[in-house]
Specification:
The protein is α/β, with parallel strands linked by helices. Helix content is about 50%, strand content about 20%. It contains eleven helices and twelve strands. It starts with a helix and ends with a helix.
Length: about 300
């Protein structure tokens, strides 16, 4: 079992195609096929279900994938350690919830790069459970919004409470009066990704109060959700920071509803990088930049004229 075969396995798993994996790795397709067959012989099990052109991981393949990630990453880390004197280190891979990328993470990156321009980061979208992405070594650390909880898979810290708000378009179906959860549950629900922590909690809350299943439509980004809201397609629960401008300009309207849960912007990281000086710099920048952002928001709130 060698790292070339493991890298090939991970590429096929990601691309769901032997042909695309061959292109990705710049090798011939028969080479990809041979490497996968050798892995399957070594492990005495099938790693992929092959149904025509459709390639999917088997249960054994899914279990093997997390270990393959770790082995490849450790192999690269060993090479970097040996060649540290002549080879620059890889970038830190950072997963980010779509609700944070533009509104919290960009200020953190700006703060970081003004002070440490030599630090390389690779930002990846976070559309599923961050703990699993870290546990599978897919990312070094992850910024996300969720309730305060811990996991045996990673360490974490809270950066700030993240206020949420239910919003709709100017001509939305809900008026200015407080809205009961049961009525809210009857509205079409728009979101960026259904896998985000606060979205999952919102759907659970609505599902428990509604008489029918929650109707949710995922758009892939908060900007797309906001455009759908202005078109009058439904309601959405979003970080207040992400819709502050639209609310101030009257393009979106706040629906009076208080969530029965509190969420926080937080960062979690793989325990293997806790002593990495690059990550220490990133974590310090995240704490400082977020604190500045929260303080600025508080000052703007304090200057807002009374109605």
């Amino acid at each position: 079992m060698d790292t070339a075969s493991l890298t090939t396995f991970l590429s096929v798993a990601e691309q769901s195609s032997f042909t695309k994996a061959a292109i990705d790795l710049s090798v011939a397709q028969p080479t990809v096929t041979a490497r996968i067959k050798k892995l399957e012989r070594d492990l005495a099990c099938d790693l992929f279900n092959r149904t025509g052109a459709l390639i999917r991981l088997t249960t054994a393949g899914q279990r093997f994938r997390r270990y393959a990630h770790k082995i490849v990453k450790l192999s690269r880390l060993a090479e970097e350690t040996v060649l540290a004197a002549t080879t620059p280190a890889d970038a830190l891979t950072v997963g980010a919830d779509s609700g944070l990328t533009s509104y919290r993470l960009v200020p953190i990156v700006e703060y970081l790069y003004r002070r440490h321009p030599e630090l390389a980061l690779e930002i990846r979208p976070l559309e599923e459970d961050p703990w699993s992405r870290i546990g599978d070594s897919d990312v070094d650390c992850a910024f996300f919004i969720d309730v305060c909880e811990s996991s045996p898979k990673a360490d974490s810290t809270l950066l700030c409470p993240e206020p949420l708000v239910v919003v709709t378009g100017q001509d939305g179906p809900l008026g200015p009066e407080p809205v009961p959860t049961q009525r809210l549950a009857r509205q079409p629900l728009l979101c960026a990704h259904r896998g985000s922590g606060y979205q999952r909690l919102f759907e659970q809350t609505l599902g428990g109060a509604g008489e029918t299943a929650v109707r949710a439509l995922s758009f892939g980004s908060i900007d797309a959700v906001k455009r759908a809201l202005t078109a009058g397609l439904g309601i959405s629960l979003l970080p207040r920071l992400s819709v502050a401008t639209e609310l101030a300009e009257g393009r979106l309207v706040e629906v009076p509803w208080t969530a029965p849960f509190q969420v926080f912007t937080q960062v979690a990281w793989h325990r293997e990088i806790r002593t990495d000086p690059r990550f220490a710099v990133l974590l310090d920048a995240a704490a400082r930049a977020t604190a500045e952002q929260v303080a600025d928001a508080g000052m703007r709130q304090g200057r807002r004229p009374a109605l």
